[in-house]
Amino acid sequence: MGTTFDELLAEGAAQPTEGWDFSWFAGRATEERPPWGYSRLLGERMARASAGLDLQTGGGEVLAGIPAPPPVLAATEGWAPNIATARETLAPLGAEVHELPADAPLPFPDATFDLVTARHPTYVPWPEVARALAPGGTYLAQHVGGPSAAELTAFMMGSCPPADPADPTFGAEGARAAAEAAGLTVTELRTAVCRVEFFDVAAVVHYLRKVIWMVPDFDVERYRERLAAMHELILADGGWSMNHHRFLLEARRP
């Protein structure tokens, strides 16, 4: 593990960014989890489903944790570097992984699935979700709230666009309205604010390279001055913290 500023920058920049495995952050950062336990809920629902679909599965790491897959299991992912990882990770579950942009029509017949899930989707094609769900089927997802990690964006870029609570993906009430407009009945909507703390600047670098929408033009050299300021704060205070905003949405097709 590096100790100097330049060593830490190089270490964070060298880590691969494919998939959603955050195990590298152990000892370097901590994240408080929402109280509802999405992974547990996902496992319980998939075990009861006859046909399940996981949207924007990343490298398949979260879905791979379910204890028992349904007889039919499919997943979508739009970022090319994740496709091979997801197919390899989900092969033991018998899942078929479709390479598909987040905003593309779903390549499935009407009423195919009794469960559609997603963890931190960047976009939800609500009419397509409603179409692909069988009558009585359920959409269950943990979403990223609009102001999530705004402190980091503001620190690096100098400002952060205000969150829009009506945004259909990144605002809880906007997501509720979009789901209902697509014909779904929202049965649960819960929100949580979770503290995140970084203990070295390498973790900040890797996070910004992995979660690319936080600082869209992030580059280590371009942001070297701000990273140096972050490094000094971490040395002085023992860490630097921000908040993740999450919401759990469950909706049913009548």
Structural class: alpha/beta
**Unreliably modeled segments:** none
Helix content, binned percent: 25-40%
The fourth-level CATH homologous superfamily is Vaccinia Virus protein VP39
Sheet with most strands: 8 strands, mixed
Following the backbone from N to C, one meets helices and strands in this order, namely: HEHEEHEEHEHHEHHE
Query: Count the strands?
Result: 8
Q: Which strand order do you get reading across the main beta sheet?
A: 1-7-8-6-5-2-3-4
Domain count: 1
On the 0-100 scale, what is the average pLDDT? 94
**How many helical elements?**
8
Query: How much beta, percentage-wise?
Result: 25-35%
The CATH architecture term is: 3-Layer(aba) Sandwich
CATH top level assignment: Alpha Beta
Shape: globular
Q: What's the alpha carbon Rg, rounded to whole Å?
A: 19 Å
Quick tags:
alpha/beta, globular, Rossmann fold, 32% helix, 254 residues, 8-stranded mixed beta sheet
Structure in words:
The chain is an alpha/beta fold and 254 residues long. It has a single domain, classed as Rossmann fold. 32% of the residues lie in helices and 25% in strands. It has eight helices and eight strands. An eight-stranded mixed β-sheet has the order 1-7-8-6-5-2-3-4, sandwiched between helices. The longest helix is centred in the C-terminal third of the chain and has 14 residues. This is Class I SAM-dependent methyltransferase.
